[in-house]
Write a structure and sequence with these properties.
With 477 residues, this protein is an alpha/beta fold. The protein has 15 helices and 16 strands. Strands 1, 2, 3, 4, 5, 14, 15 and 16 form an 8-stranded mixed beta sheet that branches. The protein is globular, with a radius of gyration of 22 Å. The structure holds zinc ion (ZN). Zinc ion (ZN) binds next to loops.
C-alpha cells in the first residue's frame, strides 16, 4: 500500500485539504482516504492500524491536487494519424464535410500493418495518459487485413490494441465493433473492407474470444459496439443487446452524428435512429449513444427515460462540423453524459469538458447552463463537468472508477497548482479553473490500477513510442 499526500483531494464535488489517499498495487484499488499525517512524522498516526502496517511508501506531492483520472469513453486510436492532415480541401471541391473526412480516414485505415496498429495505438494511449486519461473506451473497428481477409488469428489487430494499452499501462475497454454494411441494405464499400463482420454469430464468437484474451490483464475488458444503424442490420440489434446484457458489459453505438444518417434511417425504417433503437429494445442504462447530435425532442425523451448515456466528443464534433448537442434538454430528461476524444484531433479532456458547456452557451445565448438542481445558493458548472469527465465515463464503460473513495479502482491524477494558467486559484475557484481553463499539461502524475505510470510529466516509454509513431506517420504521409 502506498500513501499519496497531495495538498488537496477532489472528492464529493470539492477540494479538501489534509487527506492521504492510500492505494494498493496488488488489488489496483483505493484502500482508504484518511486524514494525512504530519510530513515529518515517521508514523502515520492518522491511518488505521492495518493500513499503517502495510504502508510501503509515502509519496509526498506538495503543490499538487489529486483528482480521479479522466475516463475517455470514445476513441479510435488509429485516427491519431489523421491529426493535421485533413485541414484542407482540393480547390475544385466546393466543400469539405464529414464524408470527405471519412474518405481520408479510410485511406489511412487501409495503409496500416498490425505492427503499425500497435505503434499508433501505443503512442496515442501514452498521449492520453500524459493528459490525465486513465481509462480508454477504444471503439475498435479495424479488424481485417488490407485485402479484407480475416487474419489467421481473427483477433490479430484487437490483440495489438490490447497489447499497446497494456504496455503503457492505461485501462482499456475494447469496444469491439460490429460493422456489416456500407449503408442500410448496402454491401460494404471497397474502402470499408478491413472493417467487415460477416455474420452475427462470427461477431459474437470473436467477441467472446476477445473477452477471454482481455481477461489476462486486470486493466482490460471488452464491450459490444454495433457501429451505427448504417452499418448493422436491424435484425442483429436484439442479439447484440442480449449479448451485452448477458455479459454485463457496455453497449456503445454511433447515433445520429450526421443528418444523412437520420435521412437514411427514416427512408429505410420510417423511424429516426433513436426511435429504431427504442423499438429494438436497446435503450437502457447500459447503452451509450455516441454523438446523438441530430435528435428530436422525442428522441431526447427516449434516451432520458431509459437513463441511457450520451457520449459527446466536442473537439471532434467541432472539427467535423457535426452540429450542437441538445445537452441541456438531455440532462433535464434524465440522460447521463460521458466524453470522448474520438478522432484524436486533440487529446485534452479539459477541452472536452469545457466545450460541452461552451457549445451549450453558444447555442442558448446563456451562461452557466450545464448544472444539476442544487439547494439554494450557488449553482456551479465545474462539479458536473468534472463528474462527466470521470464518473460519467466510468458509468458508460461500466467500471468502478472515476471517484476517489475507498474501494474504487485506484486511477488518479495529480495537477500542478503552480501551473501559470492556475495562478490566483483558491480552494473555491480551483474546480472551475480546472474544468474551464486548464491545459492538459497541468497534469503531472498519473496512477492506473495503483501503479504510477506518469511521474513529473514523464512516461518511461515516451521516447521509443514517439519514435515508432513518427516512423508510421512519415510513411503513410
Ligand atoms: Zn467514433
Amino acid at each position: 500500500v502506498r500513501a499519496i499526500l497531495p495538498d488537496y483531494v477532489y472528492r464529493g464535488g470539492r477540494f479538501e485539504a489534509g487527506l492521504a489517499v492510500l492505494v494498493s498495487e496488488s488489488t489496483g484499488r483505493i484502500v482508504d482516504v484518511v486524514p494525512a499525517w504530519p510530513r515529518s512524522a515517521d508514523r502515520p498516526a492518522g491511518a488505521a492500524a492495518h493500513v499503517r502496517d502495510a504502508l510501503a511508501e509515502t509519496i509526498e506531492l506538495p503543490g499538487r491536487a489529486l483528482l480521479p483520472g479522466f475516463v475517455n469513453a470514445h476513441s479510435h486510436a488509429f485516427q491519431r494519424l489523421l491529426r493535421g492532415r485533413t485541414q484542407w480541401r482540393p480547390s475544385d471541391s466546393p466543400e469539405a464535410d464529414f464524408w470527405s473526412w471519412r474518405d481520408a480516414m479510410y485511406r489511412i485505415a487501409l495503409a496500416l500493418s498490425p505492427e503499425d496498429v500497435f505503434d499508433v495505438a501505443r503512442f496515442c494511449f501514452l498521449e492520453m495518459l500524459r493528459a490525465g486519461i486513465t481509462t480508454v473506451g477504444e471503439f475498435h473497428y479495424l479488424q481485417r487485413d488490407p485485402d479484407g481477409r480475416r487474419y489467421a488469428d481473427p483477433l490479430e489487430l484487437a490483440r495489438r490494441v490490447l497489447a499497446a494499452a497494456d504496455e503503457v499501462g492505461i485501462r482499456i475497454v475494447l469496444l469491439n465493433a460490429c460493422y456489416a454494411a456500407g449503408g442500410i441494405g448496402q454491401p460494404l464499400g471497397p474502402l470499408q473492407r478491413r472493417f467487415a463482420t460477416s455474420s452475427l454469430a462470427e461477431y459474437l464468437s470473436d467477441t467472446t474470444a476477445l473477452g477471454a484474451a482481455a481477461a489476462g490483464s486486470p486493466r482490460a475488458s471488452v464491450g459490444i459496439a454495433p457501429h451505427s444503424v448504417r452499418a448493422v442490420p436491424r435484425d442483429w440489434l436484439p442479439g447484440l443487446h442480449e449479448a451485452a446484457t448477458r455479459g454485463d458489459v457496455a453497449l456503445h453505438m454511433h447515433v445520429s452524428e450526421q443528418p444523412a444518417e437520420v435521412d437514411e434511417c427514416l427512408a429505410a425504417y420510417r423511424l429516426r435512429p433513436v426511435e429504431l433503437l427504442a423499438d429494438e429494445g436497446l435503450l437502457d442504462a447500459g447503452f451509450t449513444a455516441v454523438h446523438a447530435t441530430h435528435i428530436t425532442p422525442n428522441e431526447v425523451r427516449l434516451l432520458g427515460q431509459a437513463g441511457a448515456c450520451v457520449c459527446a466528443c466536442p473537439t471532434t464534433e467541432s472539427d467535423l462540423g457535426d452540429g450542437f448537442l441538445l445537452a441541456g434538454e438531455l440532462l433535464q430528461a434524465g440522460a447521463h453524459f460521458a466524453l470522448g476524444t474520438d478522432s484524436q484531433t486533440l487529446i485534452d479532456f479539459f477541452a472536452e469538458m469545457r466545450l460541452l458547456e461552451y457549445h451549450e452557451r453558444l447555442r442558448r445565448l446563456r451562461r452557466v447552463v450545464l448544472t444539476r438542481a442544487e439547494p439554494a445558493g450557488r449553482i456551479e458548472v465545474a462539479p458536473l463537468l468534472l463528474e462527466i469527465g470521470t464518473a460519467g465515463g466510468a458509468r458508460s464503460l461500466r467500471l468502478d472508477t472515476g471517484r476517489i473513495e475507498a474501494g474504487a479502482l485506484a486511477d488518479v491524477i495529480a495537477v500542478d497548482l503552480a501551473h501559470p494558467t492556475l495562478a490566483g486559484w483558491t480552494p473555491h475557484s480551483l474546480a472551475a479553473m480546472l474544468a474551464l481553463c486548464a491545459p492538459s499539461d497541468a497534469v503531472t502524475d498519473v496512477w492506473v490500477h495503483g501503479v504510477r505510470r506518469v511521474a513529473g510529466r514523464e512516461h518511461s516509454l515516451q521516447e521509443p513510442a514517439a519514435r515508432a509513431f513518427a516512423r508510421v506517420a512519415a510513411r503513410v504521409g
